[in-house]
From TrEMBL:
Recorded superkingdom: Bacteria
Family annotation (SUPFAM superfamilies): Glyceraldehyde-3-phosphate dehydrogenase-like, C-terminal domain, NAD(P)-binding Rossmann-fold domains
UniProt organism field: Lactobacillus colini
Lineage: Bacteria, Bacillati, Bacillota, Bacilli, Lactobacillales
InterPro entries assigned: Gfo/Idh/MocA-like_OxRdtase_N (IPR000683), GFO_IDH_MocA-like_dom (IPR055170), NAD(P)-bd_dom_sf (IPR036291)
Protein name: Dehydrogenase
Domain (GFO/IDH/MocA-like oxidoreductase): residue spans on this chain: 141-249
């Protein structure tokens, strides 16, 4: 898999912090593209990681690069346009979460990728983590699930600026900002990956200047209920609990990291699970992405797109229920 990286922001820098360890897994850092003001930073990253191609124009990058796959790490509101251009250029696409701001945009990308036989996957860490896969197998031991509660409350270092009137992308409704898209999206992937589509979706959001700075998402699965809290304006211990008639599972830390989890029978700790393959949360997904691309595994692509489809439906229902106007 030969990667074209988009942008030089936090997520790309975070990826590059461990990307050299992916080289023996078939991942080649081929190119990087961004805007002109990012050129100096991109050059630093390129020099540090042996990236030979550097572009300051995305269209030119797609036309000239020898990369076969585009990793989209730009702000949320650009995911759709960047992915669409990449697919049109015949490139495979790995798109950061959330896939798109609107469900209709995702559906268009999904149809285009499958029609052209191109890989299109969402970079959503928890679905690929060993700790999460093992938790999925263990949930059945809990008996009938009754309650799931999740909390990802993390005070944003950009929130103080927001209160003073400075609107950065993460708090800009016109750029797909807000707690639902930034933090609760991990919880939604966690829940949908375990239980599929809920029967109903309710999103009670705290909205300031058109953006949800925090909110409570309630998913009704019929026989059990799930509550998912995410906040960028408060701080609290980050944890998730799955409660069944025969036991419970407590996830330690955020759903995108899946650091470890504990299985309880009533109040007795049965086992502690921490089977991380690699310290960085993104490593396992990119190992899988390389295999998917190199093997042109379209069955896996369809499986993951169907998962993302359900997630995007939940997101759209939450947006509509809260009356958010994301662009």
């Amino acid at each position: 898999m030969k990667l074209l990286l988009t942008g030089a922001g936090f997520i790309i820098q975070d990826f590059l912090s461990f990307a050299d360890d992916l080289k023996d897994k078939g991942v080649e850092l081929t190119a990087i593209t961004g805007v002109v003001v990012e050129k100096e930073k991109m050059q630093e990253l390129a020099d540090a990681h042996g990236i030979k191609e550097l572009y300051t124009d995305y269209d030119q990058a797609l036309a000239k690069t020898s990369a076969d796959t585009v990793y989209i790490g730009v702000p949320n509101f650009l995911h759709y346009s960047f992915a669409k251009k990449a697919l049109a250029a015949g490139k495979n696409v790995i798109c950061e979460k959330p896939f798109t701001v609107k469900y209709a945009e995702f559906k268009e990308l999904k149809e285009l990728a499958l029609k052209k036989g191109l890989v299109l996957v969402e970079a959503i860490t928890n679905q690929y983590l060993t700790n999460y896969k093992e938790l999925k197998d263990e949930v059945k031991s809990l008996g009938p699930v009754k309650i799931v509660s999740m909390n990802y409350s993390q005070y944003s270092h950009r929130y103080d600026a927001f209160k003073k009137g400075k609107i950065l992308p993460v708090f800009d409704p016109k750029k797909g900002g807000g707690a639902l898209m930034d933090l609760n999206i991990y919880n939604i992937h966690f829940l949908v990956g375990l239980f599929g589509m809920p029967k109903t979706v309710k999103y009670m959001a705290n909205i300031t200047r058109g953006v949800d700075t925090s909110g409570i998402l309630v998913l009704d699965y019929g026989k059990f209920k799930a509550v998912s809290i995410a906040a960028k304006d408060t701080q609290a211990p980050i944890t998730s609990t799955i409660e069944g008639e025969d036991g419970s599972i407590i996830v330690n830390g955020p759903a995108n990291v899946m650091d470890s989890w504990d299985l309880y029978h009533i109040t007795d700790l049965v086992k502690h699970v921490d089977d991380k393959v690699y310290p960085h949360r993104m490593y396992e997904e990119f190992v899988d992405f390389a295999q998917i691309v190199d093997n042109h595994d379209m069955a896996k692509v369809e499986e993951m797109l169907n998962h993302s489809d359900e997630v995007m439906q939940v997101v759209q229902k939450a947006v509509d229920d809260a009356g958010l106007e994301l662009e």
